[in-house]
Sequence to fold (288 residues):
Amino acid sequence: MILVTCAGGKTGKAIVNALVASGQAVRAMVRSETSANNIKAMGVAETVTGDLANAEDVIRATNGVAVVYYIAPNMDPNERLNGDNVIAACQSANVSRLVFHSVLHTQLEALPHHWERHFVEQSIVNSKLSFTILQVGSYMQNMLPAWEKMVETGVHRMAYDIDAPMSLVDLSDVAEAAVKVIADDGYANGMFEVAGPVISLNQKVAILSKVLGKEIVAEKEPLDDFLDHGRAIGFSDFTLATMAKMFPYYDDHGLVGSDKALGWILGRAPTDFETFARRTAAALNQGS
Ligand SMILES: NC(=O)c1ccc[n+]([C@@H]2O[C@H](COP(=O)([O-])OP(=O)(O)OC[C@H]3O[C@@H](n4cnc5c(N)ncnc54)[C@H](OP(=O)(O)O)[C@@H]3O)[C@@H](O)[C@H]2O)c1
Fold:
């Protein structure tokens, strides 16, 4: 049995789907009964509700599983507490491996949500558990909530510089890699970058224009506008403060890794943005 935490989120659903499709028995940890009911429909063997910040909940969720695939909440003030709870639960359940779904470049102090992960990674390495750490780049799928609006308006808006380089990765590739990493103990005690090919917003819109058969332009959304909107739709102060640091960092540096390790894990080239864009447009009956 494999425990997947934060199973009801964007990442969690992709990992759960891939594990279930590969024939693995999955216990999905979610926060609410509503999420539990939704995720049952995905074919998981078991669901458990609980909060990662609550040590007893995490022990209950981990009891009796062989492997834990630890997805952490996105931008959470309890990053280290959650990590400590997962590590302690893995130790008491004697799991055979803890796989941590981390982020690219956890050594960057300028990105608080990456930097906090650095300490979780350190605790995992020191835990004497068998572990694998996947340092995952930003997903191509992050643009999907705004895809229809982009097609309608002809503008692809993000809150960072339109020439900033980003190693965008297809979440489907990430999930495929996760299944392989879990199935093979040869990945034990390794850390691997899971990043896609480098691309900027300007390069993305050239591809999107071709795929959709209409001009799409890239536009940087001013940070204050983004934060005002985030506040209006209920982002926490912690999330807003984190994003206020993240986007200026992206302006200056982007977020760039290498796609070599992912290609090696998959045994093929990672999906490029054009393939992702064509797949997305085809699913929505858009473009040619
Ligand atoms: N998005 C990316 O591009 C990207 C790239 C690389 C790595 N990652 C990493 O992937 C992880 C998940 O990100 P995501 O984009 O999939 O986020 P997401 O869609 O917001 O999902 C996060 C999930 O975490 C659950 N959650 C939040 N706080 C929790 C807590 N205290 N206890 C238990 N569950 C809790 C939420 O449950 P509710 O549904 O109940 O709120 C939600 O289902 C993050 O650690 C992020 O750093 C993301």
